[in-house]
Every structure is written in C-alpha cells, then in structure tokens.
From TrEMBL:
Top EC class of this enzyme: transferase
Annotated metabolic or biological route of this protein: Amino-acid biosynthesis; L-threonine biosynthesis; L-threonine from L-aspartate: step 4/5
Function: Commits homoserine to the threonine biosynthesis pathway by catalyzing its O-phosphorylation.
Name the record gives this protein: Homoserine kinase
Entry keyword Repressor: no
Family note: Belongs to the GHMP kinase family. Homoserine kinase subfamily.
GO molecular function: ATP binding; homoserine kinase activity
Reactions catalysed according to its record: L-homoserine + ATP = O-phospho-L-homoserine + ADP + H(+)
The protein's Enzyme Commission number: 2.7.1.39
PANTHER family: HOMOSERINE KINASE, HOMOSERINE/4-DIPHOSPHOCYTIDYL-2-C-METHYL-D-ERYTHRITOL KINASE
Ranges for domain GHMP kinase C-terminal: 271-334
GO annotation terms (biological process): sterol biosynthetic process; threonine biosynthetic process
Chain ranges of the GHMP kinase N-terminal domain: 73-158
Length: 358
C-alpha cells in the first residue's frame, strides 16, 4: 500500500434500460453522473468503522434510503465485497468517500446500477487491484445487480447490448448464490472474517451500438418511486408466443434504427414498442399505456419514440427537437392522474471514469 495521501474522483453515468423491447438486454448511459470524491490519508489509527467515513449530498440525502454506515451503504458495501474477495477486510485507513448523487432513486434511471458500478470501481481503486479489467469488474457487478443492462451501460458507456454467457454448472451455482451471501447483512461492525463468494469469470458481456448524434433523450421523471424489485414482481413467468415474436421483431430493428443518421422517425417509433414488460407495469404507473400510445412522430414534431425507462416510473422520449413541448405533453398526461414530474434533456454518456486529483 502507498504511504502517500491520494485522492481521486469516480464518475459513473445514470442509465436507461430496455428502450422498449430490449428487456434486460439494452442499456443507454446518459449524461447525469454519480460522483465519488475519495481521499485516502494513511493513518495508523482510524476511529471510523471499517476505516471509512461517508458524506453525502444529493438525491435521498438525509433519508433512510441512504445510509452513511459503510457496512450498510450500497456503494461502500459493494466496494467491501471486492476488497474481501481479495483478502482485504476493510478500507485503507483512513478513507473518506464524499458521494454526490443527482440520480433520482427508484425512478428507472439506474441509480442502483450506478451505485454498484461506482462501488466496484471504488473497491478496485482503494484496494489497488490494478489487474481487474473492465470485463472482470462487470463480473463483480453482476453478482450484485443481476440484470446486465444498467450496470453494462454505467460501466462501459454509450448504447449497449448486454448478454450473459452459459456457464459451467459449478459457475452457475456461484452466480445463483443468494445476494445475502454476496453482500452479507451488516454485522454491527464485527468482522466475521468470512471470504465472500468470488464471481465466476465471464458472466456477462456487452457490445456497443452506434447512436445517431441528432437523437437526445428527454427524461420525464415522476416524483414517486417504483422499486425495481416490485416492478419485476408484476411480470409474468411465461409469455404468449405472439408477444415474444413481437418483441424479437422490434429488437432486430432497434440498434440499427437508432444508429442511422438522419434518424427515421417511423422506424424508430415502431422499433421502440414492447409487449414484455410495459403493459404489466401499467398497474404501478398510472397512465403508462396511454402515454406510450398517445404520441407518435406524426402528431408530435421532433418525436422519435416513447418508452418506459428501465423499471419506471420515468418515461423516456427520444427526440431530435421540440423537447419542451414533448415533455409538457407527457407531464400533462401524468397530471391527469395527479402525478407531478420533473424533466431533463440528456445525451448519451461515456462510461465510468477515474480521475486522480492527487
Ligand atoms: N448513490 C447511492 N448510494 C447508496 N444507495 C443507493 C444509491 N443510489 C441508489 N441506491 C440504492 O438503490 C435503491 C434504488 O434502486 P432501484 O433498483 O429500486 O431503482 P433504480 O436503480 O433507480 O431504477 P432502475 O433499476 O429501474 O433504473 C435506493 O433505494 C438505494 O437503496
Ligand atoms: N431490465 C430491468 C431494468 C431495471 O432498471 C427491468 O426492466 O426490470
């Protein structure tokens, strides 16, 4: 370990998963960033639990959703998982992690995916685990967030297709280890000494798709949360064959349609339709079906397509112009159900970066 003080910033983008038909496959990194400002000041004695002090500003600040206990906070807990897989039981004394988080929690903009990716990168950096490649970091992410779309986009950036490879039976068993064993429940500061299960190699992969630079993402963000776990519970275990075929036809178009310049609005609109998750999530997001079906490029100049962002409730409208009008139309639809929204224009973003400041 270095005896010099060091500081660095980890920057991880938010993301929108699915983009209509690409359930658990497609992810788009977007230009709103979780930042960790990290300082490690060598000290022989730390009074902090696990040698780590957390401070926080941004979404969820001061609420029960964001803990400042390093054993409980999602970001530091994930970092500890990476460290403990490499026989480092705690953070180096003394670590300060200042979290700046503008990504709204539980809204379908990949706040947990960004937290997991930033946490894995934090473990790599403070543990000086320089041998961990991007692909290997992805394995660690997938032991925690088990759908690859958000974490793939947040780690690698851009517009990505993600997929899981068949594993050997032993490796499959390792991936299926309950999350409670991967990220053990906080033990009140007591180190149980247990080495967590290491991820198998090559669980997940990604491929980058082109993105036409004219296309922007308008995110309409309702003020209520839909936890991803709840939004997955409403999905059926089996689907009618016609609905699966419907999505396969559209997923074959989507990466091509969004990469073409100039964009073809009719093609993109068609390519963003879905029958595998959005219809079922309507029960959690009042007005969802009407919002997705009520606007087309023909009725709304500048619009290319509309979908649910991730597990929702955020709506993502892809557009080339008239962003405010498009957002206002969706906001007024939500208002009919007494739901208040915020909105932002976002652009595709690069993946997670680490910048050394000292
Ligand atoms: N910066 C953060 N620091 C600590 N915990 C976080 C942070 N961001 C998210 N979380 C945790 O993740 C939870 C939200 O995760 P959830 O998967 O439900 O929504 P999401 O990731 O925002 O949406 P989606 O997966 O649909 O894009 C929060 O309640 C919180 O526990
Ligand atoms: N593909 C996941 C993304 C969650 O953000 C889902 O739709 O449940």
């Amino acid at each position: 370990m270095s005896t010099m003080a060091q500081s660095f910033v980890i920057k991880t983008p938010c993301s929108s998963a699915n983009i209509g038909p690409g359930f658990d496959v497609i992810g788009l990194a977007l230009s709103m960033y979780l930042e960790l400002h990290v300082t490690v000041t060598p000290s022989t004695e730390s009074k902090q639990p696990l040698n780590c002090r957390i401070t926080y500003e941004g979404e969820g600040e001061g609420t029960d959703e964001i803990s400042l206990d390093p054993e409980v906070n999602l970001i530091t807990r994930v970092a500890l998982y990476v460290l403990r897989c490499h026989d480092q039981r705690a953070f180096p004394a003394e670590t300060h992690v200042h979290i700046k988080n503008p990504i709204p929690l539980g809204r379908g903009l990949g706040s947990s995916g960004a937290a997991v990716v930033a946490g894995v990168m934090l473990g790599k950096e403070v543990g000086q685990l320089h041998h961990l490649t991007g692909e290997r970091l992805f394995d660690f992410c997938l032991m925690i967030e088990r759908h690859p779309d958000n974490v793939g986009a947040a780690l690698f950036g851009g517009f990505v297709g993600t997929y899981l490879k068949p594993l050997t039976p032993e490796d499959t068993a390792r991936v299926e280890i309950p999350l409670s064993e991967v990220l053990p429940a906080p033990a009140g500061g007591i180190d149980t000494g247990i080495r967590p299960p290491e991820p198998p190699h090559g669980i997940g992969h990604h491929i980058k798709f082109p993105w036409a630079q004219e296309i922007k993402a308008v995110a309409i963000i309702p003020e209520f949360e839909v936890p991803t776990a709840k939004a997955r519970e409403v999905l059926p275990a089996q689907y009618p064959r016609n609905d699966v075929t419907f999505n396969l036809q559209r997923i074959a178009l989507l990466p091509v349609a969004l990469g073409q310049s100039p964009p073809d609005p009719e093609l993109i609109y068609l390519a963003m339709q879905d029958k595998l998750h959005q219809p079922y999530r309507q029960t959690l997001i009042p007005g969802l079906t009407e919002i997705v079906e009520s606007m087309t490029p023909a009725t709304q100049p500048g619009l290319l397509g509309v979908c649910l962002s991730g597990a929702g409730p955020t709506i993502l409208a892809l557009a080339t112009s008239n962003f405010e009008e498009i957002a206002n139309r969706i906001i007024s639809k939500f208002k009919e159900n007494k739901i208040v929204c915020n909105w932002k224009v976002l652009e595709p973003a690069e993946g997670t970066t680490v910048v050394r400041t000292r």
